[in-house]
Amino acid sequence: MVSLCPQVEVCTGGQSPCALDGSADEITRRVSLAIKALQRNKTIRHLYDYTWIMAAIGDGIVEGMGSFGSPQKFIDYLKSIGVERVPSRSTISTWHSRFCGRFPNWEFIDTHNPQEISRRKSVVNQFRNALNKLRDSEN
After folding, report:
1. This prediction's pTM
2. How many domains does the chain have?
């Protein structure tokens, strides 16, 4: 089977996520609170929606945070920040292979439905907005 969008593994060069505009602990706290807000308002409808967050972090939407070298590292991170219901490694891997490009210009190979594409990107936009709101409320 030919893949239209090759799967790319994003790596940090062996480094953990680091902080540029706050400590690693502060960024982790904000990420945890932002994800909990998305769960509360039902933005995250499916476990595979965490794929969009992982990919967007890899694309640099969280200032001061590196990317994850594998789906398992992202899952371990989610568990470490208190996310109780997390996707499996195979879920993230499967869904990560269904798009290519860099956020917000992702191209999806599994759907051409504009509402679904918008919903997926909205998960990331709402995640980023929640992070920004938390950061701004602290300043």
Report:
1. 0.83
2. 1
